[in-house]
Amino acid sequence: MRSSVGVVVIGGGYFAQFHINAWLRLTDVRLIAIVEQDLSKHASLKEKVCSYNSADTLITDSLSSVITVNTVNSADIQIVDIATPPISHAELILESIAIGCPYIICQKPLCGSRDNAINLFDKTKNSNAEIIVHENFRFQPWYRTIKSELDKNTIGTALQANFRLRPGDGQGPDAYLERQPYFREMKKFLIHETGVHYIDVFRYLFGEPQALSAVLRKLNPAIAGEDAGYFVFHYASDLQAHFDGNRLLDHSADNTRLTMGEMLIEGTQGSIALYGNGELLIRHFGETDWNPIEYSFTDNDFGGDCVYHTQKHIIEHLLHNTPLENRIEDYLRNLELVDLVYQAAASQTKMECSV
After folding, report:
1. Rounded to an integer, what distance in angstroms lies between the CA atom of residue 239 and that of residue 46?
2. Quick check: pTM over 0.85?
3. pLDDT digit string (tens) for 182-224?
4. Domains (ranges, CATH) in the chain?
5. DSSP labels for 195-240?
6. Cβ–Cβ under 8 Å, residues 7 and 49
């Protein structure tokens, strides 16, 4: 067993900061380098890690430059964590495999499309590398707690679930400019960028849908893609799980990005509610009172510290061979369902979800 796991992060934008902070907080991890064009973003880390500006060669030479400039042996790199735009994903993953990196983590939307992700998978499936998608919403602590309650059959058979996405960041001509301006140019936005998280959460909580239906629309003319709509997962168990998204509207929370919205799951023996402050409540069938579900979480960085929990999950697998979630071969199913949501909305028909 290694004394520490060597990690290289490629990317330094808005969300990459959460990756970097999590690696620095994790025990058994040594952050070797950050590859980023703007080194000023990481000036405060100069004493802790080696930042490298690959500028003109970010794609093709980034890892070899880290090894050369920082005198790092490629064998010291156990994880390459890719937090860059989708257009760069495939090449960086292939380069990571070429230097012999055993674990590669990549942000979503993986490779920008399902076709590109499948093409990458076909090229890498016979390698020895483990490719993991950084799908972190399922690691938000409220969903881990809800999953535990469902597994204990606390509310009986779930028949209805509804998540209302209401971050309130999509109004006006300057929508998304401050935090993630590339959102504005996405021709497929709400589902491709955000709804995919809840496709994954629904699969994590409830399993595979039998069919789906969807309606999508664009409300803000300043952006290219859809920013409101819904999809419904229909299950063989008679459960219907609804994702109801509207980025222009908000919900009652000091930080609307903590949970991004509110959820209600109703079963034959009771209901579970998630509120915008992360509070979980349960009401048993036939009763009037809602009671808290006792659990705790820290509000570090993003989404109940879900980035930290995602990366901790990966480190525990690497060091202790615990089960691993979000392998690329599993994640391709999310991308298939994203495509089916768009097809269902365009055709206004229910789509079968064959596995």
Report:
1. 52
2. yes
3. 899 999 999 999 999 999 999 999 999 999 999 999 999 999 9
4. 5-134+308-324 (3.40.50.720), 138-293+334-352 (3.30.360.10)
5. IHHHHHHHHHHH---SEEEEEEE---TTSSS--EEEEEEE-TTS-E
6. no
